[in-house]
Amino acid sequence: MPRTKLKPEPSPVTPPAAGTNGPAGEVLTLSEAAAYLRLPEADVLRLVEEQALPARRLGNEWRFLKSAIQDWLLTGPAPLSNKEAWIALAGVWKDDPYVEAELQEIFRRRGRPMTEEES
Question: CA-to-CA distance for 67 and 55, rounded, in angstroms?
């Protein structure tokens, strides 16, 4: 009679001991995330706000999942929707000291007056 191989018994999964929070290095503090990204902490917080760097605020502290940072580095921030892109453009020229001169030049090159009163 042919021999049959016995399947090995799966090893029992033991839950982590009380007080452990998973593998060390998976969840990073702000200073650890800044060191990992080789940036100042202020720049990391700016990336959270402006470029959707994935993070969670727990009370007064920030936590970063290392794998989420790696994914963010690979993919970059999510593209803005059409509406968000237009909203982001609203008001960007308001403090530009050259806007008025640029507009005058544009209208001059087109051979048009800037206002109906100038025609």
Answer: 11
